Amino acid sequence: MAELVNSPKVEFIYTPVANYAIQQNKIPLVRKLVIENPYETDLLDLKIRIEGEPNFVNCWEHRIEILPSKQRVELDVKDLKLLASYLSDLTEKLSGDLIISIHSKDDLIFAKHHNVDLLAYDQWNGMEALPEILASFVTPNHPEISKVLQVASKTLESWTGNPSFDAYQTLSTDRVKKQMGAIFEAIASLGIVYCSPPASFENEGQRIRMCDTIFSQKLATCIDMSILYASCIEAIGLNPLLVVIKGHAFVGSWLIDDSFADSVNDDISLLKKRIAKGINEIALVEATCMNAGQKQTFDEAINLANYKLVKEEDFILFIDIKRARLSGIKPLPQRIKTPDGWEIFEDQKSVFRESLQPEAITDEGVIEITESNQFSKQKLWERKLLDLSLRNNLLNLRITQSTIQLISINLSSFEDALADGEEFQILSKPEEWTNPNKNSGVYQAINMSDPIVDLLKFDLSHKRLRTYLTDSEIQSALTKLYRTSRLSLEENGANTLYLALGFLKWYETANSELARYAPLLLLPVEIVRKSAQIGYIIRSKEEEPFMNITLLEMLKQDFGITINGLEELPRDDSGIDVLKIFSIIRRGIMSQSRWDVENHAFLGIFSFNKFIMWNDIHNNAAKLEENKIVKSLISGKLEWECKDISNEIDFDKKFNPTEIALPISADSTQLEAICAATGDNSFILHGPPGTGKSQTITNIIANALYQGKKVLFVAEKMAALSVVQKRLADIGLDPFCLELHSNKSKKSNVLEQLRKTTEVIIKSSPQEFETEAERLHNQRIELNEYVGALHKKHHFGYSLYDSFTSYAEQRKASDIIPFDEIFIDELSKEKFISLSDKVEELQDAGTICGHPFNHPLTQIKTKQYNQQNKSLAQELIPQYIHLLDIKLQNKKILSDLLKIDVCSLSKDKTDSFEKLCYHIASLPDTPTTLISIKSPERNLSNIIEITKHGERRDVFRDSLLKAFTKKILRYDAEPILFQWKEASQKWFLPKLIGQNKIAKELRSFSTTRKIKKNKIEEYLDTVILYQKEQTRLDDNAETLSQNLDFLWNNGNCNWATVSHICEECLQINRLIYQVNENTSNVNEIRSNLASHLNDGSHSFLTSKGKIVTEFISITKEQKKIEEKLTDLLNIDFETEQDTSIDWTEYCKSSAENWLANLDSLRNWTSWNRIKEETNEMGLNSVVDAYSNGKLKNQEVLASFKKSLFKNLSEYIISKDQRLSIFNGKLFEGKIKKFKEQSKYFEELTKAELFAKLASKIPSFTQEASNSSEIGILQRAIRNNGRAMSIRRLFDLIPNLLPRLCPCMLMSPISVAQYFEVDNTKFDLVIFDEASQMPTCEAVGAIARGKNVIVVGDPKQMPPTSFFTTNHFDEENADNEDLESILDDCLALSMPSKHLLWHYRSKHESLIAFSNSNYYENKLFTFPSPDDISTKVNNVFVPGYYDRGKTRQNRFEAEAIVSEVSRRLLDPILSQKSIGIVTFSSVQQNLIEDLLNDEFKKDPKLEQVALESFEPIFVKNLENVQGDERDVILFSVGYGPDKEGKIYLNFGPLNREGGWRRLNVAISRARYEMKVFSTLRSEQIDISRTSSEGVAGVKAFLEYTEKGKIALPNKQTSNKEETGSFEKMVADEIKNMGYTVQTNIGCSGYKIDIGVVNPDKPSEYILGILTDGKTYRAAKTAKDREIVQPAVLKMLGWNIFNLWSLDWWDNPQKVTKDIVNVIKDIQAPPKNTEKIEDENETEAQQRKVLSSVKLQSITQEVIQPIKKFEEYNICALDQSNLSISDDFFDSRILDDIRQQVNRVMEIEAPISHSLLSKRIINAWGISRLGIRLNGYLSSIYSQMGLKQTSQNGKIFYWNKEQDPLKYDIYRIPVEGESKRNADDLPKEEVICGIKDVLSNQISLPEDDLIREVAKIFEYTRLGGNVEQAMRMGIEYALQIGLAINKDDRIVLS
């Protein structure tokens, strides 16, 4: 079909056939589905659908929201299932389709049909896909099979007398063969006619006749007959094979109970070796010999089948039925035709024979150790360690390439010569001599009469040994042994090459016919190869010969034979006594029939060494289980409460540098592990390749030692142990670390290590340590504070950097919207989101409307919409428009009438004009003088003011005239009022006279002639006020009369009317000014108006002025409609939008727009509603900017965000001084100081750690007892450990050893060998390469510690022996241990820590495949400057894989050797180390051979290759883990055969977990990897296999061919957003003319910005690191400022640190700085000094990085502390008494007391007897009698002396002395100062004990007594001396100062 638009690329791998057998065995139909988007745009909303046509599968669907551009995603299609109901009913082959379709948003963008052959129920699909399915057609439980077996049993009985089909129970291959023959005869008797199979059936497949069909039709092809025969023999418990060759098939069976490692095998040699005579493990049968008409016997059928293997090119493959069953391939169920269709009957009986086997006979030997069905963990561990089955070469010698039989005549003499250190040359057998006498492959002993005996004796005397091999065979065999033994040493640290002397010939049972040979004595030897030209020699190693303990254990367990006397081998004058040993063995087996000891000698590989570990588990099971980890491994669940170590910790803040010792720089993931190890924690440390495991382990060990812990480091590989040992030595800890890996555990080496430790110089702690630690801590805090401040999330949910980034994301928008600080203070994350949503809603509403600025409905403010309102509006608006038309016409008429230009009035002027018209219409008759008055504002205002006076005058007048006549108005009231007030101040009579006079005068004016005196003053005031107002009127009478005209009325006018008219005239004047643009003609307009009003207002309004009232009426009607519209639509009629046009015209135009756009009313009401909501949320500034047209529709939200983030940024900076004062250059200076301080403190830490450990080493300069631990060690060092083994030495110094060497580096076997379980407890046990360490080997070491750290990678190599054995434990397959101690601990859910920073690969492409496919892209890898290119290259090699013969690929091997030669000859390329990795050992051997040939041709090549810092290696998948080289050359080996056929057998990769081997192999390179392959990725059809390893090979080859595009993106994510801060910076640099990339790297760590080198577009010239997300993600300051920059610098990056605050402040300057740096890099060097070669080694680079000038370290050598004092005797003045009774005289009592005080001051503590002796001697008294003693006792009591008692004796102490804290002992200076032992206080004795034990560590009690007595200078032990010393020891034990451990006293 035609390709659809935007069709994605689809990789679809599926199984092209389907039948019922495939469905039943759960084989997936779809193996791989990868969808790739090759386009520049993202594919959205993808729906992938797979369905079948016809409906033979369930429909499968999957959705992907987004598939980013240039990305691919791999989908899991495991839920697509074949439908069993459909396939079971098929009777004929059909052609079906798998239809895959892809829709994007309901548009079909991809569709394709994939053909699937739907096979009938009984149809086989051939070899092209899933050949193992053929095993399904072998149906042992078919009902017809039993009929055949009944016939066969009779035949078997006639042959053997026993009709039972007992399978392998007799352990006789002959019995098995006879059972096969009986079935052969039974089938042959059925008369089944042969019919030819279809052509190429092996490829195309065919219909298989089931058993019932064969019996009913009596027809069968070769494959039908083979399957029938296989079904029968499987039914009796044998293990059948089906063999397929070109055009034919036949059958076979195992003669022993065994199976192959794989179900399908294409290696013909696997069969040929096992059918060979003498081996007889397999019998093949030509099945067609059972057809009718054939007369061949069973043996002839076997011969015919064997003959068909001659043509190896015809061989295709064979299928091991039993192995297929173990892989889950079940037999097809029986299908029976019923009226309702085909019905399936599942077998009720199990096919697997394991559950049907009878119990083993316990009184006979068996092939395997038989256990109960349920194995305990202990038994499984033991079983794994010690294989007592016939597979063990130590029990059943197999003649292979790993063994060479020597022609031996005198084993005793031979052993003596080897013991004397002689070297022997290995020669071939003598020509023309044969010794055909063989038994079980072993040449029998030579008859001493044989003429060759003399030659052999001669050769032996000349140090030559003869073998039974030819010249060519011997060289090949020795090469094989040499390589194998060397490999064993490298991998396991154990020697496995031995010379076996003497063999036990034994039989499994009394009925067994095959003899077995087990070696007796094993002599460790080594093969030495001096060069490629010289052959091999053998010589004895510096190890003792030993007995085959595996054989002794087997004899004990299986036969109950215990042979004593061989715990220590008997010896003679030269080595061991061989003959005596043989005699002991013969006596032990004397009762065993046919058993014997035979004198054979074999040189070979004998793996025995794990017996020590077996014995450790077997004998210490209960002790092992006491350990919490071991107990958990046994129970399968955690048996202790684990602490949570997963919480993230701020290491810089929580830990002071003094708390954790880090002598080596560590990244944060390493630091997490180190900190986790500080507590009482056991955990797993995941260490993917290149993540610094050894460095982390070194730091963990160093820190544990710093905390006073004892550490056991365990590694099975010597290489892994050596790396850690070297790192420990580099930091100065080698004296305190004892290496005891098994292959170097020589006493001389161990003692030499211990001697060096004893000579360590003890120094004080560095004086600078504490102060510099605090300084470093403060520096870390300061650097972190900037990061914290920059990335601190504020109350509004954003950090400053977030604000920068968000601001940059909107860089095309404007930032004109203001926000005040209050707004920001109240902002929250939730509010920001809601505000953004509201602004976006506002933007959407505005966009829907078109744009709110100048919108036709702008005046409409309503927020509600309904259709009724719209309909009403449609009625009102036309009316409104009509009124406005009339109004405009009237306005024009009025303009002419009033002489006012009103054509273009604004809203205000229109309002004024309307008011003018209203005032004109409402104006009463008015004098024209008032309308046309000059200066109306002044004059009219004056008149209005005068009217106020007139009104007041009238009020005063009216008030006076109510009581007086008009005369009163002219009365001079002011002086009279004065007189009244003056009279009021006088006394009564004058007052009365004065007031009466005035009253009388006023009565004359009264209308009633009466007046009240109390109102006279009020009247007078009123008269005065009246006269004042009248005077004011009189003054303006002329003006008023002129202006007021008829209104004046001679001064008696209506002042209110006048005022009103004046107000109106004034308002008209003002309105004329407001309306009229031209102020110069205002007077003219007023005059014109006055002329119109000359005849009166009414006259005017009814004639010419009628238009005024009409205008007013229209205006009122307009207002009514506006009110209605306002109520209806909330139209704003007050806001003027456009002042350039007449307001009325504008209103009309607006109304017309409203009417024309009423259909948009719904959208506009939404806008109004959202706008108001937006304003209510405080976003008025956003609404204003948008409504005023400052923002376009599409930029409202962006501008809001940009403006807000700008304000947020400034807000944050202003609030934090750390940010406001930040300066990038100053900060870089702080970073520089931090780097220097960190390096300096690392050196201080090393010195502190050394001082701390050295302080624990006792002094070896003092004399020590021979029985003390120091004495024992000193003696061992002096005599080189003569007569003392290492283990014995360790047993004797259990307390001294951890003080000398608190860290032990050992292999698992050496742990078991040198340490008892209960004697040694390490605080911490660390395992390295734990993925390769079996649990059974690890438990012994685990049990010797309190906590364990399991270091390894579960995605790397498991423990394996693929290339050395084909052992598969069929029994208990489900109960076997997990692969390794790492897997078992993972299964326990032990806490885990992960190392995630990858350092090994100097180019990301080298680790990208593993990271993507196996580590879920969680490894943080560092991109290199040439990241644009790849360092993983595919070299296609034309050629083929020699599958059938050598199983080698010579073409690839030659290409690799050629590449190696090229590199070694190149002076630059040769500086890079080389490693060669192959998929198989045979390919490895071929490359080694070809390399040796090249080295022979050019010896210089060999010198360069092997003598470099890292010699070249050639390794295979199984042994390359732990190795790394600069350049890895990879040979796939497998590929198309000579005919171009590809068989998907990739050796160990096909196995479960094979991908782990691939992961190891492809992650070994540092700089470059080249993959040489004759195989291309597209040639691997993974639909033919279910192996993950094969799928991995295909994916890896595809990666080497296509690069990163081949890496699947298994988690689709949104495409990275553009417009970030880094993108903004990148754009600025691009504007300067450079090519720039962002986010460089394919893991979690990115270079933010990379500038491409203009001269070399394949690399970057500059990397720019911002202080953004990657910078913040670093968990420690050291990560950010030291570790990561150092790695980038080492990789060759030029780095520029861009600080975002600098950019925010001045982006132009920062851009300029960047450009200047680029130009400086591009500029040629100014000097002519030699440029460093770009290929400088990593070590040189590290040296450059670490070249920091360090400060000095101040330490002092510590001298031994003096713990004793000299005992000084108090010399008292002598006084003589006349008589002794004078001593009791009270007059000398004070003198006695003074003497007591003096003695106490000098000699306390002192015994009562000694104190008394000092006192009486001073008085000349020689004897202390009872009376004297009592008297002195009373004196001491009166003096209140502090005292203690011991053993009935009293000791006195000074007051300041505390007996419990006494810490000194005193020794005599001279003989006279020597005290009696009874006078020694026990507190002083234990101080001596402490001193002795501090120096000598531990002593037996008797020796301790002597040593303590010695320091008190007691040369002989008397009763009292021993009693005093023993009392001191008892007291020391009582108070816990010391403990008695293993009969030795040691300090607690």
Notable characteristics:
1948 residues; alpha/beta; 8-stranded mixed β-sheet; 7-stranded parallel β-sheet; 70 helices
Detail the topology: elements first, then pairings:
Elements: E1 9-14, E2 17-18, H1 20-24, E3 30-36, E4 43-53, E5 60-67, E6 72-75, H2 84-88, E7 94-104, E8 107-118, E9 123-124, H3 145-160, H4 173-188, E10 193-194, H5 201-204, E11 206-207, H6 211-217, E12 219-220, H7 222-235, E13 240-245, E14 248-254, E15 264-265, H8 269-275, E16 282-285, H9 298-307, E17 315-320, H10 321-326, E18 334-338, E19 341-345, H11 377-385, E20 403-406, H12 411-419, E21 423-427, E22 438-439, E23 442-443, H13 452-461, E24 464-466, H14 471-492, E25 497-506, E26 516-529, E27 536-540, E28 546-547, H15 549-559, H16 578-588, E29 596-605, H17 611-619, H18 621-625, H19 628-635, H20 651-654, H21 668-676, E30 683-686, H22 693-706, E31 711-714, H23 718-730, E32 737-740, H24 747-758, H25 769-791, H26 800-809, H27 821-825, H28 829-849, H29 867-898, H30 907-922, H31 928-931, H32 936-961, H33 973-983, H34 988-1003, H35 1016-1035, H36 1037-1044, H37 1055-1075, H38 1082-1092, H39 1097-1102, H40 1106-1129, H41 1143-1156, H42 1161-1176, H43 1180-1187, H44 1196-1215, H45 1217-1220, H46 1224-1254, H47 1269-1278, H48 1286-1292, ...
